[in-house]
């Protein structure tokens, strides 16, 4: 069982569809996506109900992920990255979801509870950040891998063979013997490989990796990224990498979604983004990253503090921290506009060179 799946609303199956979702169905929506698109998110909003008024955690997010594409979702803590990723699998019953989420042509938000198994694990696998909360500490890791397959109808014998093979593929030495080990008996880097194994055991088409290098030293973190890159190529996986580390983005991703206060503010190919960031927030994030191709006396930091979801200001949420903010920024939410191969949510995108950027 995937961590968090027991948290979904027990009455989803009998309830009428939530506002903003489609009627419950597992029918393919092939006409809505091209053959290269694995995930299509349209106007996704996520609300946390409160006694008086709901707090909007994610506000009208739209993006696509192509098959075999490696996409990074970046932003400071509290920007809505993990909430967005978990919404793709409907993992939190306390949150109200609206919009559309198509995964391999299946509308996820309208699926009845009993059919979510066709998405979780099989189409999307999620490697959670904390191994100690995503893995059972009193069950051998091998048994957890086997159980995930058995509930899908695989025999225990076949499940064991596949689990050993996967651990070995991910670089866990002596995989057969390590099947009997518990999570606390693995080093940090090996624990992360086991977490990846749990996410991959049902052979999904999209892997969500939530901060996979957190708390690892630089050398081990790069090893984990190399394993992730290798297994993605070998299995022809799409990857959604959630991180706040722009250095990790540069070494792994092909495309970057920059998120601030629950909204996408920039969407670009990684090389183009690092060469010429357009949104002031993206520019600030990159200014704080050491670069081998540039020399600066002192790294800059994004001024001010991130905006809490319940305290999002009118207009552009970034305007209190932006030195270039004007009256329109303070009063009108900027739409996410397309400029060639990029999308940018900034009223002054043209002035900042968006029309000339790749």
UniProtKB/TrEMBL annotation:
- Region listing for Disordered, in residue ranges: 1-28
The record's SUPFAM superfamilies line, in alphabetical order, gives: P-loop containing nucleoside triphosphate hydrolases (SSF52540)
Q: Where in the cell is it found?
A: Cell inner membrane
Parts forming coiled coils = none
Which keywords, in A-to-Z order, does the entry hold? ATP-binding, Cell inner membrane, Cell membrane, Membrane, Nucleotide-binding, Transport
Q: Does the keyword ATP-binding apply?
A: yes
- What CDD domains would the database entry show? ABC_NikE_OppD_transporters
Gene3D superfamilies given in the database record: P-loop containing nucleotide triphosphate hydrolases (3.40.50.300)
- A cellular component annotation (GO) from this entry: plasma membrane
GO BP annotations listed: peptide transport; transmembrane transport
Could you tell me the membrane topology recorded for this protein? Peripheral membrane protein
Organism superkingdom: Bacteria
Mostly located where? membrane
Matches recorded under NCBIfam families: oligo_HPY
Similarity field: Belongs to the ABC transporter superfamily.
What name is this protein filed under? Answer: Peptide/nickel transport system ATP-binding protein
């Amino acid at each position: 069982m995937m961590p968090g799946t027991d948290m979904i609303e027990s009455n989803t199956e009998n309830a009428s569809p939530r506002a903003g979702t489609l009627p419950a169905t597992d029918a393919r929506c092939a006409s809505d996506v091209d053959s290269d698109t694995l995930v299509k998110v349209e106007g996704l909003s996520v609300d946390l109900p409160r006694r008086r008024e709901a707090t909007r955690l994610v506000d009208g997010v739209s993006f696509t992920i192509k098959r075999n594409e490696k996409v990074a979702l970046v932003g400071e803590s509290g920007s809505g990255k993990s909430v967005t990723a978990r919404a793709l699998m409907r993992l939190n019953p306390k949150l109200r979801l609206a919009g559309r989420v198509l995964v391999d042509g299946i509308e996820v938000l309208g699926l009845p509870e009993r059919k979510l198994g066709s998405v979780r694990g099989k189409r999307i696998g999620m490697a959670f950040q904390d191994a100690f909360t995503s893995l059972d500490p009193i069950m051998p890791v091998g048994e957890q891998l086997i159980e995930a397959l058995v509930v899908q109808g695989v025999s225990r014998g076949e499940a064991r063979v596949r689990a050993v093979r996967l651990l070995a593929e991910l670089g866990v030495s002596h995989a057969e013997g390590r099947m009997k080990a518990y999570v606390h008996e693995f080093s940090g880097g090996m624990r992360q490989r086991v977490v990846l194994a749990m996410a991959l055991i049902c052979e999904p088409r999209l892997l969500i990796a939530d901060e996979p290098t957190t708390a690892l030293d630089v050398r081990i973190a790069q090893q984990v990224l190399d394993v992730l890159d290798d297994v993605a190529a070998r299995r022809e996986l799409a990857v959604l990498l959630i991180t706040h580390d722009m250095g990790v983005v540069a070494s792994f991703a092909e495309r970057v979604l920059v998120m601030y206060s629950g909204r996408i503010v920039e969407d670009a190919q990684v090389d183009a983004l690092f060469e010429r960031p357009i949104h002031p927030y993206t520019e600030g994030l990159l200014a704080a990253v050491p670069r081998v191709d540039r020399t600066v006396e002192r790294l800059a930091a994004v001024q001010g503090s991130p905006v809490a979801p319940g305290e999002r200001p009118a207009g552009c949420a970034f305007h209190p921290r932006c030195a270039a903010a004007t009256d329109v920024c303070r009063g009108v939410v900027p739409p996410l506009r397309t400029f060639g191969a990029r999308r940018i949510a900034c009223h002054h995108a043209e002035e900042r060179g968006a029309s000339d950027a790749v």
